[in-house]
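Reproducibility note. Readers wishing to regenerate the assembly model reported in the main text can use the exact inputs given here. Chain order matters: entities are listed in the order in which they were concatenated for prediction.
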Amino acid sequence: MCLGLRLELDEAGLVYQPGLPFSATALEHVFLQVEPGERVGIAGPVGSGKSSLLELLAGITPPTSGQVLHDGQPVGRAGPKPGTIGLSFQAPENCLFENTVAADVAFGPGRLGLDKEEVARRVRSALEATGLDESFEQRHPFSLSGGEQRRVGLAGVLALEPRALFLDEPTAYLDPAARLDLIDRLVELNEESGATVVMVGHDMDELSRFAQRLLILDAGRMVADGPAPGLLADAGLLRDHGLEPPGTVTLAGLISRAASLPVEPFLTEEQAVEALARIMEGR
Amino acid sequence: MQTGNMVIGLFIPGDSLLHRVDPRSKIVFSFAFAVALFLVSSFGGLALMAAGLAAGLAVARIPPSWLYRGLKPVLLLALVTFLFQAFLRGGAPITSLGPLTLYREGVREGAFLALRLVLLVLSSTLLTFTTPPVMLTDGLSRLMAPLQRLRFPAYELALMMTIALRYIPTLLQELDRILKAQLARGADIRRGGLVKRARNLVPVLLPLFVISFRHADELALAMESRCYRGGRGRTARRQLRLGWLDAAFAFIMVLLIGGGIWVGRL
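Running the prediction on these inputs yields the following structure tokens for the assembly.
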């Protein structure tokens, strides 16, 4: 069991190439508090600053204005304390470099000064969490398929058993079944370990399955921050910012139009059943 | 870890007169300028050429902060050159600092060499600041085209340069990502001895190599699928034409370089 990390942004902003002709503002005046153990989704159109926000929160990219705090302590330019955060960019498989899967996953925990048994335990449990069985351990990472490499890359981050996990579109290029599987594993991990998990996603169906709280960014500004179910059910808000509402919300809208009845937007199967039952009663 | 802030042959978009000069003119005269810097042997000549360069920087509206960025890597070298010359060259001693003696001729020669070095870097930086990389390689390949008859692979060389230039920012970005990801996994590239530090670079460099090879593979496929078959008989969409601007540029550069050599012929 580990305690989640509390994350805070105090009027943080990020400008790339400040003071130069190419300077580009990625984020402006962001105030944000993420409680320990929260599951936060970040959504927004391309170029809205999602990845920048993730990097700021992780403390791995210093802001050009304002402050980033972990557990109330400002994060210095040297970055967060080793082992407190896990970070996976869009293609974690790009960071593979060892000769065997097990060695690659062991790299992170091996640097934390843990004993051999503990490292081995973490490698095993991280590979398990990403759905890779023991037969993978001694294989060469580059002999695996793209999806398997992605899992190994992610396992290398999970093996740190971080107090906060930051993921940038972890499901990109995975097949539909693997996507849902990964999302469910992340939720499970969050519930078991209590780690804070922040995920950037472009698929509202996935975010509705994952997030308790949703942040919506547009053009470097935070335009919405609140409980995920409420925001995801607001098709108008999502469309205003170039996002496609979850399939279930669109479906609820279609049913409402076909039946000429107001239908509450639903996100889960139970809510769908409830909503449909109410329509049937009404008939 | 601010790899995004590096200035390597970076181009500053603009519409100044210097931006509009044909890349071939700029390449030829930057080269002539660099050669002339080595023919000049007095401060007067160097000063004239520095004035010309300053005028060029002003015309191109290069922000001073960029100049400093472009010069940063060479400033240390210039300083070391100056110090070596000042203390070790010999001549009439000025003053002694402990075991070291400062020499008059040394200071003069050191300042001269350092200034020459700075001017050399500044002039080539001005070329890359005002010329987009693609134009630069276009110009180079056109200049080298006559050599093609001597079986010199001018076109292939130009293509290689274009691709290399194109991928520098891409790879820097990838490097930044990998570095951050591996640092978050506990990689440590700043501490330890030389051997240890080199070994610690493996988690960063190996993935970068893998990515480079992947990029190369994908690029080759993309080029082949667009029926790329080498340079022979290929025409350019962007035609380079010399105009009155180039004539004026050539006139000024001949005056500047000629004047510099004439003043500095001592």
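We highlight two features of this model. The longest helix of chain B spans residues 154-184. Residues 1-8 of chain B have pLDDT under 50 and may be disordered.
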